[in-house]
Structures are given as structure tokens and as C-alpha cells.
Design a protein that fits this description.
Protein name: Glycosyltransferase
Radius of gyration: 21 Å
Number of domains: 1
Largest sheet: 7 strands, parallel
Shape: globular
Keywords: Glycosyltransferase, Transferase
Strand order of the largest sheet: 7-6-11-10-8-9-13
GO molecular function, one term: hexosyltransferase activity
Structural class: alpha/beta
Strand content: 5-15%
InterPro entries: WecG_TagA_CpsF
Length: 344
């Protein structure tokens, strides 16, 4: 008997795969360094997005790391953005380590979650269900190149782009032009990649003026897709070393972020240590609560006795079927249909 990618193989018959959990426990929404965050896995983020797209509802999926926490000092508008967010990913292994150190026993490495962790499954879902995705950000020409690359393998995803070089002052001609382009496209998902905190501030100022969609600040996502910026190997992210890769690649720009900013959080670290003592002494009773806006599964499914692909079936298509089984689809691409990357 040998262990393969999907589980045990050999004499033992494959067992039905346990569906990923759609219910959240109260302790998986945590308070770290003065901010609220959600310990979610990549598949849970995608399920959240797919469910909101299916219902035509608006939402913000934000993310926290040490950089965002440092930027929050003295920025009420940035704080207002995070207060408005519906789901806040933890994009930082040090934050997860700190969560466990201060009594959040459920914090695990797989709770580190960002665009690079769910990009492939996201674009597969967008392809299968023909989502309309608008990307705002990047240098002129970069986003269009990224959309073309994605369209080569996922032509069902309908993508429109606009570079991030414009006057984002509310009410300015440039800001209004961008807003009009986005609303005319009527995206299911809006990705804003203009760097932190510019992307968060733009979302905060214009969120209520957008047609209903799921909005995600994604940083340099399309720089990676276009090949103009190299992403750190995912194993480095899992080990908490992605910052070292990025620092080595661009030390002049990132030295302050990785070597100075963490020291600005010492007072918050001390406060967390003081407040965590009672929590570590007696953990709250475990209770299960419904993940916001998640469809219910049968009790047998939650026990792993219901439907689900076999362990050997770990293809993108099977993951899409699990994450977004009922999302509306406007029709599969017609035979010979060209990849659609609409340049705004």
C-alpha cells in the first residue's frame, strides 16, 4: 500500500472524501493586535465568494498582515475599511503563530490565505460559471497581458481591466471615469490591485457606488499573472519565509516594511499578551455556527457520509464542483469562442 496524492491507495478501497466544513466556530473569528480577522482556508474563501455571486450580493473580502496593521496606526479611513469588510483573511504566518501563542489553539498553517493560495481554483470557477471579473490596477498594459494569459486556459472567465494610473480623488473626472467603466461592465467580482493602502482606500470611498459584486483587494495579483513579478514559492509561504524572498528581490522598497514596521506593533503585542491570560486559562466551550451566507449541507454530509469526490479525484474540476456546485452559469463557451479579455 502506498500513499498517493489523493490518499491511501492499494488494497484498501477509496473512501468518500469528507467535504470541507461549511460551518464556522466562534473562536475562528479572532481579535489579534486590536483587529478582527477570520481563520479561513482558501476553499472557504472561495465558497464565500461563490455564494455571494450566486445570490447577487455585495461583499468585501479583505486581508490583514503586519504591514496593514502598521498602516492602520493613525489612519481612521483605513480602519473604517476593515470595519466594513465581511471577511478578513490572515495573510501572515507570524500572525498565525501569534494567534496560537496567545491561546487561539485552532490557528494552523493552512489558515494563511491570500490570492496566491486560491488563484487557480478561483479562475477555474470563473471559467466554469462564466463570471465577469474586473481587475483595476497595475501599470498600463500589464493587466491586459495578465487577462490574455488567463484567457488561454480559462476562456470562460470574462475579464475586463483598467490600469491603476488615475486620479482617485472622489468626484474627480478620473475617479468617475473608472467608476463608470466598472459599473458598465457589471462585474460579479471586482479585484483591486493598487497596493496597500491605496486599494483599500479606493474601495472604501467607492464601495457604495458600485453595482453589487464581491470586491477583493489583491495587490500585485495581475503582475504575477502577467509574469512581470515573480511570486515566492508556496512552500516559503507555508514556512513563513515569503517576506524573505520578497525582501531579497526588492530590498530598497521593502526594507522598511519588513525590518522596521513590525517594531511599531510592540505595544499591541504586549496588550494581546495581557488580555490572553484568562483565555489561555479556560478556553470557551466549542460551538458551531453557520458561516455567513453559506448554504446548509445535510447532517450526513457534515459527518463525511454524504456526497463528495473520492480521494483520488482532486482535479480542479472536482474542487470547483465542491466549492461552487450551484452557482448560476450563463452558458458554456461556444465551440471556437475566443478568450474574452476586454480592455477598458
Amino acid at each position: 500500500m502506498r500513499i498517493g496524492e489523493g490518499g491511501l491507495r492499494g488494497d484498501a478501497a477509496p473512501q468518500p472524501r469528507r467535504p470541507f466544513r461549511l460551518k464556522r466556530r466562534p473562536e475562528e473569528r479572532v481579535r489579534l493586535l486590536g483587529q478582527t480577522m477570520d481563520m479561513v482556508k482558501a476553499e472557504e474563501v472561495l465558497h464565500f465568494v461563490a455564494n455571494h455571486v450566486a445570490q447577487g450580493k455585495r461583499a468585501i473580502v479583505a486581508n490583514h498582515n503586519l504591514h496593514s496593521l502598521a498602516l492602520l496606526r493613525g489612519s481612521p479611513e483605513l480602519q473604517a475599511f476593515f470595519d466594513k469588510a465581511d471577511l478578513v483573511e490572515i495573510d501572515s504566518r507570524p500572525l498565525l503563530f501569534w494567534a496560537k501563542l496567545t491561546g487561539r489553539k485552532r490557528a494552523q498553517a493552512f489558515h494563511r490565505c491570500t490570492y496566491l493560495d486560491w488563484r487557480d481554483d478561483f479562475w477555474e470557477i470563473a471559467h466554469v460559471h462564466r463570471w465577469r471579473v474586473f481587475y483595476l490596477g497595475g501599470a498600463p498594459g500589464v493587466a491586459a497581458a495578465a487577462a490574455a494569459n488567463i484567457g488561454k486556459t480559462r476562456p470562460g472567465a470574462r475579464i475586463a481591466v483598467r490600469d491603476g494610473f488615475f486620479d482617485m480623488t472622489p468626484g474627480s473626472a478620473g475617479a468617475q471615469s473608472v467608476l463608470d467603466e466598472i459599473n458598465a461592465f457589471r462585474p460579479d467580482v471586482l479585484m483591486v490591485g493598487m497596493g496597500m493602502p491605496r486599494q483599500e482606500l479606493w474601495i472604501h470611498r467607492h464601495y457604495d457606488l458600485l453595482t453589487p459584486c464581491v470586491v477583493l483587494p489583491v495587490g500585485a495579483a495581475f503582475d504575477y499573472e502577467a509574469g512581470v513579478q515573480r511570486a515566492a514559492p508556496r512552500w516559503m509561504g507555508r514556512l513563513g519565509l515569503e517576506w524573505l524572498f520578497r525582501l531579497a528581490a526588492d530590498p530598497k522598497r521593502l526594507f522598511h516594511r519588513y525590518c522596521v514596521e513590525p517594531w511599531l506593533l510592540v505595544d499591541l503585542l504586549a496588550r494581546d499578551l495581557v488580555e490572553s491570560r484568562p483565555a489561555r486559562a479556560s478556553e470557551p466551550e466549542r460551538r458551531r455556527v453557520q458561516l455567513p451566507d453559506s448554504p446548509r449541507r445535510r447532517a450526513s454530509d457534515l459527518r463525511g457520509q454524504g456526497e463528495g469526490p473520492s480521494p483520488a479525484d482532486s482535479s480542479p474540476a472536482s474542487r470547483v464542483a465542491m466549492i461552487a456546485p450551484n452557482a448560476p452559469r450563463s452558458g458554456a463557451p461556444e465551440s471556437g469562442e475566443r478568450p474574452l479579455a476586454e480592455q477598458s
